[in-house]
Amino acid sequence: MDKLLAEAKKRDQQDELAGFRERFHIPKHLDESDLVYFCGHSLGLQAKSVQAVIQGEMDAWRDRAVRGHFTGPLPWMDYSRLLCESLSGLVGSRPDEIAVMNTLTVNLHLLMVSFFRPQGTRRKILIEKHAFPSDRYAVQSQLHFHGLDPQQDLVELAPRQGEYLVEESAVEDYLSAHGEEIALVLWPGVQYITGQAFDLPRIAAAARLAGSNIGFDLAHSVGNLPLALHESGCDFAAWCHYKYLNAGPGAVAGCFVHERHHAAKDLPRFNGWWGNAEQSRFRMAHDFEAARGADGWQVSTPLLLSMAPLRASLELFNDAGSGRLRAKSLAMTSYLIRGLHELPGELLEILTPIEPQRRGSQLSLRVRSGREDGRALFEFLEHNGVLCDWREPDVIRVAPVPLYNRFIDCYELLRLLAEWSAVRDNPSRQSAS
Ligand SMILES: *Cc1c(COP(=O)(O)O)cnc(C)c1O
Fold first, then answer.
1. pLDDT band at residue 428, thresholds of 50, 70 and 90?
2. Is the same domain home to 77 and 170?
3. Is the pLDDT of residue 382 over 80?
4. Which terminus of the chain, N or C, has fewer Cβ atoms within 10 Å?
């Protein structure tokens, strides 16, 4: 452990991004020390700049009221364009391919209205067996909406027997054998339980080769991994901003519609006035005239107060730079993986792929001794100031986030795990804490 401690200290000293931690509020443990927060994949921490940005919009509302839409330093009308300019760098799209609106599951539904169009024998949706429940509910209800039966028309691709990961080649194999039945593939960028990052261009290519539409759920990818959505060739994507993007609980979400669909006149869509072209939106015309690009999928007035924290957060990402963030993220997870391998005993199995290109900031650790022991370990960590995430039945998820976590945080987790292993392997010994 001494070598790991020395390495953590040295890496923190050399970390070019170390200063960003001070720009966040770090929740406190009982003894008023900083909590080691490894739940950025679930709800990112609050940047200190957020409050002033929200207050600025509160002041604009108070002082300018309805004029706030068109006047002031940043008129509300221009807000979403500004956000999309900087978001497009993070997701690798043209600015007009993305929109900031609604929440994630709502966006999935709106996009499936356009991109799940079952016809004849091509009417199934392909997802992964362990898809996030909200995504499964969404596709089940889309199938019902089209008069189809999820029992028959929802295909769930499972990992091979006894395994946790779904290989890209398995998706390709399935699609080359059965692709003519698939109308839509809905796939995650990063699997939320295992932390597996998928090769998105490869999955998009396989789906398109099979003649299917392809959409990505990027809830665990945006702000975590470099993305190239336009290049990937997917039809659409959706994501939330409260995980790695730190935009706060229930923050406004994002969506992507590939440029090749922007001129399509025949796509069904659920319209609202905010999807109308800006030039004619306020003429209150009877007939809808779609805005070009992803903006055309907007429905309602922008959620200004929930966009403001996103603006503050994107400034931090711009300052930090996605290359440096990715490098630190990989360095932290590599450090953890090495430390985990050095732990005595067989306490944990790392479910996340260890190849760098197949993982983001999250490591998923399966407690080999099962659920009860796993819960006890999770609670031991929390009691000692290390907050991870527990997934039934036996997985602890750990997300060292490069913007605000340190190597010493990773060391603290390893230290506690070593302590736990020592006590377990020799129950007569007392725990040091
Ligand atoms: C976090 C997450 C969601 C949450 O959806 P909301 O509509 O924002 O509540 C959905 N799908 C996936 C894959 C997620 O990781």
1. low
2. yes
3. yes
4. C
CATH (domain of 382): 3.90.1150.10
DSSP letter assigned to residue 197:
B
Residue 352 Cα to ligand 1 midpoint, Å, equals 20
Structural domain ending residue among the three candidates 277, 300, 317 = 317
Mean pLDDT of all residues in 295-307: 96
40 part of a folded domain: no
Whole-number Cα distances in Å, 114 to 61, 240, 261, 376: 35, 20, 10, 46
Measured from the Cα of 108, ligand 1's closest atom is 7
Query: Which of 109, 129, 134, 242 has most ligand 1 atoms within 8 Å of CB, for mutation?
Result: 134
Ligand 1 centre to CA of 42 (Å) is: 10
Backbone φ, ψ for residue 125 (5° rounding): -115, 130
User: Of the ranges 86-95, 324-333, 372-381, 423-432, which one carries the lowest mean pLDDT score?
Assistant: 423-432
Residue 62 lies in domain: 52-317
**CB of residue 222 inside a 6 A radius of ligand 1:** no
**Are residues 330 and 313 part of one domain?**
no
DSSP code at position 149: -
Nearest-CA neighbor of 135 among 111, 115, 108? Answer: 108
Task: Kindly tell me the sign of the dihedral angle through the C-alpha atoms of 163, 168, 170, 171.
Answer: positive
Q: What is the mean pLDDT of residues 359-373?
A: 96
Token pair 């003519």: residue: 180
- How many domains does one find in the chain? 2
Average pLDDT of the chain to the nearest whole number? 96
| Domain CATH code at residue 60 | 3.40.640.10
Residue nearest ligand 1's atom 8 by CA: 104
Q: Which residues pair with 395 in a beta bridge?
A: 366, 391
Q: How confident is the model at residue 296 (pLDDT cuts 50, 70, 90)?
A: very high
Both 241 and 92 in a single domain? yes
pLDDT at 423: 83
Same domain, residue pair 349 and 312: no
For residues 262 and 126, membership in a common domain is answered with yes
Mean predicted confidence (pLDDT) in 337-353: 94
Please tell me whether residues 224 and 329 are part of one structural domain: no
CA dist 210 → 176, 213, 243, 359, 406 (Å): 6, 9, 33, 27, 44
pLDDT digits (tens, 9 = 90+) for 139-198: 999 999 999 999 999 999 999 999 999 999 999 999 999 999 999 999 999 999 999 999
- Domain end point (choices 317, 334, 360): 317
State whether 384 and 301 are in the same domain.
no
What is the model's pTM? 0.96
> Distance from the CA of 33 to the center of ligand 1, in angstroms?
31
The answer on 289 and 187 residing in a single domain is yes
Select from 222, 240, 242, 362 the residue to mutate for testing ligand 1; criterion: most ligand atoms less than 8 Å from CB. Answer: 240
